[in-house]
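User: Modeling request: complex.
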Amino acid sequence: MPGMLRYAIKKVLIGIPVILFVSLSIFFLMQAMPGDPIEIIAGERATPQRIEELKRSWGLDQPIYIQYFYWLSHVMVGDFGISITTRLPIAPLIWSMLPYTLALTLTALVLSYVLGIPIGVMAALKRGTSLDNITVGIATFFYSMPTYWLGLMLMLTFGLYLKLFPLSGTDSMVLPALTLTLPYVAMSARIVRTEMLDVLTEDYVRTAWAKGLPSRNVILKHALRNALIPLTVMFFLDLPWIIGGAVIVESVFAWPGTGILLYKSIIRQDYPVVLAIVLIIAILTVVCNIVGDIISAVLDPRIRVEKGD
Amino acid sequence: MRKIFSKVMSKRAVTKIQAIVIILVVAVAAVGSYWYYLSTLPSPVEYKKTLVIAIPEESEGLDIQQVSWANEPLELIFQSYMAFNSTMGIVPDLAVDAKIEGNSVIIYLPGDAKFSNGDPITAQVMQDAIERYRVLSPYGSDYDAVIGYQIINNSTLKIITNVPPMYIWLNDVPTIYGVVVNVKVAKQVGDAAFNENPIGCGPYKVKEWVHGSHITLVRNDLYKTNLPFVQNKGPNTYIDEITIRFISEDLTRISELEAGRVDIVRGVPSDAVSRLRTNPNVVLYENIVPGVQAIRLNCFKAPLNDSRVRQALMYAVNRAEINTTLEGTVLPTYLYMSPTMLAYNASLEQYASNKYAYSVEKAKSLLQEAGWVDIDGDGVAEKDGKELTLDMLVPNDAPKLKKIGPLLQAKFAAIGVKVNIKEFSYSYIRTRERAWDFDMACMFYSWHDPAGILPYLLHTSIANRTYSNLEVDKLFDKDWSTALDPVERTKLYTQIQLILLNDSPWIPLFTDKDYTAVSKNVKGLLVMPPYGTMYIQDTKVVKGG
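Assistant: Request completed. Predicted assembly structure:
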């Protein structure tokens, strides 16, 4: 697929300045935020002289563009620096927490599609029936429920009262994964249902039925394949946020992930940690966009034609 | 029945069967009685070898010399030379003794003192640790007065200062900040690695730190203490391992205790206190925090440059109502110091509470005296056509201050002062304070020695630029430069606070109380002032329960 390859390379080349721009924006935005991380780490009894010394030692007395280029030059060689609040190296800190977040969010994401797609298809095929109404009702309920509240309710019900699962921590992933999965299942089921309803009224689907093709073939090969295209795009757009998007669930269930690390670092104005995580998310966003585009093209030949393949 | 049996078997056989049945019945009765007797005896108590503690905040780092605040893991990894007892007296811990001699502090260690890795703790090691603290710690300036050391013998160090060393004696020697760390290991592994896995001489040492999740500590079998208030002066053989979990969500932390998966919960939120008090499976420890939460006023900016306006605000605050709003989890205060601070004067608190008892009338009359009167009847006082409007900075990361913000606003409105609440992070509020850019700013501090905190907040030449009174400065300087006995110090801080009460640069609101919820299975735990430090030397955790 040389056309597709050209397209991918072009996307990667565009992605590099995008990543740089994102890092630059975040760097300056963090500097513009009210407050000062040195105020946090200096403590109550630090003298103004000590605060100035600390600023010097962290290079925070330098002009902002020098700080940025210094940071960028280190990132280029894989050194994210040291956390201002913990004084620990950032890269090992992120890598130690990333597996927990990936385990949780990927499980939730995969489960939501595995469960959401058949539910959505079923609801579309039984449109207007009580099954459809119940499915849509439950999906709306979970989709509109605040994650924080849902997490607490699951924790109290299944952890504290029924004692079926541990309430929090890394002993079991069931409750945090369920909290993340339920709204996602609802969302993907609703999308699949809507797309399937559109696709089922298309001429080629009617033709397939008219030709007497088996229902399974019509639904899976002709209808579902097309209905899944927007879901695929959404999957890849969601993917970068699996690193920082589970803040609430991680907080409720004391799950040691990068979402909570990002949140706490923003609160503590720990610039180096925030920059490192945001940079990873930016890189993932660019990569996932490219992968998402390629997969969309594979699923939908019209996209290939538009790209001149 | 006997007739029926006699038809099918001989009389002798029937007698035999009867005898066997009687013997069996007697045997069963005897065994049953013995079984019942055994069951009434108290069963031997079994103890759990692990202790699980849930805390709200993960440690910044584990090297006490690199962090700005210490929490539970650090209190178990390190050991102070001296410690505070329940009456705030200074008693030996790692040191067998310590004393002030002229312009010096002498610390006497036991001859066999060792770090958890077996390295000996000598006078030279203590000196190296102090020098590292001076360079690394944000509080390194604590030792600014040090001009030299004298190693008296292998386990005795004299720290020589250019002024009486009261500051070091009260702020470092008995606290977790002034402890000895293994500098040799820190140099070998580097500061970053040492911050992950430090070597101290406290009762436990680091096994693993899973960031964001927990720290596991294992017993330091070389631990020894001279604390007079604990019975066990060595390692606690009942608890091999302590897991300290970081659970930031309040409800989760409390639920884990109620579910029996956690033994001790620190940082109990105020709204859970009354529920836990009635829980028969939980023991609640209360500790009065050394410090106050207050509103700082910008005394150099109109209209707060008029002491009558500031005093009016003092009268406008109903502290009893604050306590009710916070469900009785604070101690209302009118002073700049709290009962768990050194040099605290309880009778002065009584005096201040009478002087500034809640009074809308007095507040309004002071405002009127200062020329602020509500002429147009809109509820806001005016002067020279200008309304009495003030901005109040409230930290959104300090739950209790945030919660009472609207109450304070309503109380100030009642005397004709319109207060606009502006919520920011506490670090930003501190930045604004340093830039003089505020009218009113909520603030709090926590430190046991007034000399170690109040000058940093109120002395003209150190940090404060929104209040200045040279008389107060002189009194602070006197405490720093002379060796005062506790009675003299109390008098000195009474004098300082009397001036402050008149000047009113702050509106003291309350002293916070910290709560520790402990499972009833945990026996022998000590929670000591001023910081509610847990001493687990005599602690046992009963299995099941």
